């Protein structure tokens, strides 16, 4: 679950901070059980990312994802952190797709800034300042809603199935935009101006436990990656008619940049 208290599994996400990405996998992932004995187990819609494919991806030690807004500031979800202030308890892992790689870059946090006014509904963004820069490419954020449509990419180390274990390897998948009107039919509490939805009507590919705070991104007009969403919440993982819900980055871009300037 990636979501609010009224949603199934929301306590898991909000209290244990493990909200968000059901990305499918290769043979190393835990399979969904098949009906027929001996049949090859299916996977849930994605593939393993290549080393260096998404250099801006960050894994956070509390069980969330994030992206490098700058080389020293990670953008993640507000529900992944506990308020604002000095904080040296978070470890950011970057530079690898395999979390057990000896090449992994690990840096401690120094400060956290949770979105002002965050109360569990909407405004699901936060910034984490690192003790030292991570020398990897950063991910630009969308300043307008011009990119809030089409097909998006999501990536993370979260569960490959609802209720499953989080993953050692970075996984990726693509999900299509879902309109506010359509998404609101599934989620009457959707905050239209602050949230954006993506997923398939038939389910099968989605975000799941363990990737809250990770980015949803696409190519901009210069063919560069640009972040349009932050993994936030949803009902279960990859269920039909229940798309993933993401913080709409373009709505908060000015606030995010202003906040980053204060860190």
Automatic annotation (TrEMBL):
InterPro entries: Peptidase_S1_PA (IPR009003), Peptidase_S1_PA_chymotrypsin (IPR043504), Peptidase_S1A (IPR001314), Trypsin_dom (IPR001254), TRYPSIN_HIS (IPR018114), TRYPSIN_SER (IPR033116). The keyword Phosphoprotein does not apply. Residues 43-261 form the Peptidase S1 domain. Residues 1-35 form the signal peptide. SMART domains: Tryp_SPc. The keyword Hydrolase applies. GO terms for molecular function: peptidase activity. SUPFAM superfamilies: Trypsin-like serine proteases. Keywords: Disulfide bond, Hydrolase, Protease, Serine protease, Signal. It comes from the Bacteria. Pfam families: Trypsin. GO terms for biological process: proteolysis. This is Serine protease.
